[in-house]
Amino acid sequence: MRHLFTRPYRPRTNGKAERFIQTLTNRWAYGAIYGSTAERTAALPGWPTHYNFTRRHGSLGHKTPAARLAELEQRPE
After folding, report:
1. C-alpha–C-alpha distance, residues 70 and 25, integer Å
2. How much is the pLDDT for 17?
């Protein structure tokens, strides 16, 4: 994972970042029951893989982000 900055005053890109943070909070941080903070922390590294390669997104036609990216990369220009 790498840190990308969104352009200031661009709701479209900022909205995507905000939605990712909201989903992370609701699904990883508070969406599961953890026995301890250490257990929650241990679950974090696998979460972005789940988000990008396993979890289907309604806004992408119920495809994963990785599948949608592969489609876009295969398009002839």
Report:
1. 27
2. 80
Dihedral of CA atoms 21, 26, 28, 33 in degrees, nearest 10, equals: 160
Look at residue 77 in the predicted model and tell me its pLDDT: 65
**Secondary structure letter of residue 60 according to DSSP:** G
Facing residues of 63 across strands? Answer: 57
C-alpha angle with apex 16: 14 to 18, nearest 5 degrees? 70
How do the domains of the chain map onto residue ranges?
49-77
For the chain, the helix, strand and coil percentages under 3-state DSSP, each to the nearest 5: 65, 5, 30
Three-state DSSP at 63 gives: strand
Q: What is the mean pLDDT of each run of 10 residues along the chain (77 residues)?
A: 77 79 91 93 92 89 91 82
| CA–CA separation, 25 and 13 (whole Å) | 19
